[in-house]
Structure formats: structure tokens, C-alpha cells
Amino acid sequence: MDGAVSARGPLLVIGAGPGVGAAVARRFGRDGHPIGLVARDRDRLQTMVEELRDAGITSSFALADVRDPGAVGEAIDILQDELGAAEALCVSPLPDVTTIKPVEDTTAEDLRDALELGVVGTAAAVTRVLPAMRAAGHGTLLFTTGSAALTPTPARASSGIVNAAQSAYVRMLHDQLAGEGIYALHTVIVGPIGGDGHDPDDVAQAMWDAARRRAEPRITIR
Question: Whole-model pTM?
């Protein structure tokens, strides 16, 4: 393997949850990457870290609300001090369903909150890890969104608006940084995750495979 995936530096997961975030952590951890988790639920993070450690994966966590860019930066600093400079970053927070409404009912506050979660926190994480990646000449940036990135609908207005902003941001990162050895991937997940939906481990494997190829700016999981 080449690039970030072979270097076995830390993977930081922002907005870490028990679905895709945990699955990506497990997949990278199995290859020897230390794992740092960032979210705001201490009990959930502690459980996830214990599960990773039980599997023999070096891991730690730091608390932050993904909507607070200052807190995200501080959490990343804590984890990088402990684990080393991030070799890979995965940003996969769950959307706030309270902001998802028909377009005519979507308020400025709904959009502000949704953008803080989906775009502002993402940018805070990227700008914190990017200097070390650029200095090293390699890195991996992974992002997930729902299917509104492909087919926005008026019934779920904030999802379409935020996913469009996320898509544009990740594509610009991909185009700008590829020449420096830094790979940015947008993974669009169509349909639910878990239960009768996509297996999170399958999603993580698809992201892992794309990170090994280091070619396409976006993959779609249907």
C-alpha cells in the first residue's frame, strides 16, 4: 500500500459514532493505525475505545461538540499530542434530524445549525490536521454524506443544502491537494445504515479500498 494507509499513523474520527465512524476506526485499526475519537458523548466514546483496545488497537478519545470549531481544534490537539500527527482523518457526524424540514419551513437557524455541524466543524478539523500532512507529503481525508448530495429534495431541505456545500468543499480539497500526496474522498451513502440497511463494516471497507486506490474523488454506496 502507498500513501497514508501504509504509514500507519493515527486516524482521527470526528463525530465518532457506533456506525460508520466505529467501523472505519476498526478497519484502519486492524492495519495498525492508532485511533483517536472525537465526539461529545463521553460514555459512548469510552465504550468505543474499550472495544478497540480489546481488539488490540491503540486508541484514545477527546470530547468536543463538532459544531464548535474551537473545541474540535482543541480535541485534535489533545489526540495528536498523545498519538502523533494525524495520518488520516474521517469526518462522519450524524445530521441533526431536528433541522431537516420541508424547504418552506426551514429557518435561518435550521440552516445555521446544520452548516455548523456539517461544514464548519469539518473545516475546523481539516485545517487542524492539514499542516502536518502537507509537511509529510501524504495524508488521507475521508468524508461521508447522505444521498441528498446526489438528489436533493424539497422535503429535506437542509440535507440538500448542507450536502451540496460538503460536496463542493471535499471536491476542492481533492483537486487542490492531490498533487501534494493528500487524498480527499467523499463517500455518498444512499439509504439507511445498520439494520436492514448498509452494514457499517461494508461501508468502511469500501472507503478503505478507495483510500488504497487514491484515485476517485467520490464513491457512492447504494
Answer: 0.94
